[in-house]
Amino acid sequence: MKKLLLGLVFTGMAALPANATLIATFGQTATVNTVVATDNGTATHIVVDDAIAAVTTFLSGPIGNVQFSLDATSTDAAVAIAGAIVQHYAGTFCFTSGINCGGTNYLSGVFDDAAFGGAGGPGLVVNANNPPDLLTLTSDILSASQLAAPSSFNLGFTDIATPPGLHINGTTIGAYTASFAGNVSASAAPVPEPMSLALLGMGLLGLGTIRMVKRH
To answer: Which terminus of the chain faces fewer neighbouring Cβ atoms within 10 Å, N or C?
Structure first.
């Protein structure tokens, strides 16, 4: 995992799992930082509180602007490796039509994986890939089969103030503000159309009839 994270830091990208389909891309509409991270020297808490996000890609079709919220807390000590900083986080996120994750749940999730970025730099990436990491996605719009693994949640933070930029305070990533953009991918298994379901039902009915005839 450390080799993968270092590779992502140096390329500036988060890899999508094999056989996954991009289901959403998004970014804040505000011109000021909406991500607020606070720390106490041993743990860091990252919050985005009902920021307006423009969803530019969505699997079921355009949905325009949504309320985006994120709440994540570090689960271990930050580590400096070859000019990069890595720390694991567990948290939740949601895209909804109302505040406080209310209204229509376009997409939400629970995740547990790493945040990483270049020491002293203006950026940080939160990345969760399932498998092998925890990422559970739910939606009022998309089906469970469309949100199954392989899946990923990638969130990029930019405009972290420099100096000192991304840094470690005590044993955790130091406080900062940032702007955000990201994407989500999943299996995106196609949902059968009504006609396909009808044909499937007729086929099963035919098989059942044939078996009954053979028995008699």
So the answer is: C
